[in-house]
Design goal:
- It is found in: Peroxisome membrane.
- This is Peroxisomal membrane protein 11C.
- Keywords: Membrane, Peroxisome, Transmembrane, Transmembrane helix.
- One of its GO terms (cellular component) is peroxisomal membrane.
- This protein is mainly alpha-helical and about 240 residues long.
- The protein has a domain at about 15-70 and about 210-235.
- The chain has helices at about 1-15, 15-35, 45-65, 70-80, 90-115, 125-165, 170-200, 215-240.
- The longest helix is centred in the middle third of the chain and has 39 residues, at about 125-165.
- The two termini are about 20 Å apart.
């Protein structure tokens, strides 16, 4: 119990860890709130559902405000990666560069939309929310394509190791590559869950835009968020 509490505190003390926890609570509240707000629910359940949806909206707004400070960290990462000179695979390199560009442009667009809604600046926020949503969706699609490419490359390495010796080092190498493949599969599942919500928030008439009920948006977001928490816990366990 004490170790679990300490692990939770360690997660909450880091910015990325706290954001993942807030994100999970945000979408989890929307999932439960959406279910309780359905027509078949009792009046007391419906009231609780509405309160959970309001709570989810506040957590979402909290994350939007916190992202006002993400530009520099993203810029630092983009500069360190550059044009991916250290990347051996050309398709993987350019997908990563485009992904970084989409992520970098996303933040100022969202900031402008937020400032317009807060009446800090005088402009129509709708077009900026739309642009930020498009950039987010593009980033997710590129992320899926990148993970698929990584899986292809990892499987090639696995086949080479399987055809080689069965030494202890070779077995350890295959185990590490298999873990990386599972990690990329989780990345794909997480990105597809988020992409379904990104399409939902597009203007009506585009695919399934606007057709998701609250509980389904919450389900997709919760799935993605839990995968993120699992991956973070796994990376911390490996580094430890």
């Amino acid at each position: 119990m004490q170790n679990s509490l300490e692990s939770l505190v360690n997660v909450l003390e880091s910015y990325r860890g706290r954001d993942k926890v807030i994100r999970t609570m945000c979408y989890g509240s929307q999932l439960v709130g959406g279910v309780l707000s359905e027509k078949l629910a009792s009046s007391s359940s419906t009231e609780l559902g509405k309160r959970l949806l309001l709570y989810s909206a506040q957590l979402s707004h909290c994350r939007t405000v916190l992202r006002l400070f993400d530009d520099l960290s993203m810029l630092t990462y983009s500069q360190s990666y550059g044009l991916g000179a250290g990347e051996e695979d050309s398709p993987l390199r350019w997908m990563s560069v485009l992904n970084n560009a989409a992520d970098q442009l996303y933040y100022p667009c969202e900031h402008i939309a937020w400032a317009a809604d807060a009446q800090i600046i005088s402009t129509n926020s709708d077009k900026w929310w739309l642009l930020s949503g498009v950039l987010w969706g593009l980033s997710l699609i590129l992320g899926v394509l990148r993970s698929l490419r990584v899986i292809v490359l990892l499987r090639k390495k696995l086949r080479k190791l399987s055809q080689g010796s069965s030494s202890e080092g070779s077995v350890a190498g295959r185990s590490q590559l298999q873990r990386q493949v599972r990690g990329e599969v989780l990345n794909i599942l997480s990105s597809l869950a988020d992409l379904s919500n990104a399409v939902h928030w597009m203007p009506p008439g585009f695919l399934w835009a606007g057709r998701f009920p609250n509980w389904l948006v919450g389900l997709m977001g919760t799935t993605s968020s839990l995968i993120g928490l699992i991956q973070m816990g796994a990376s911390q366990a490996i580094s430890a």
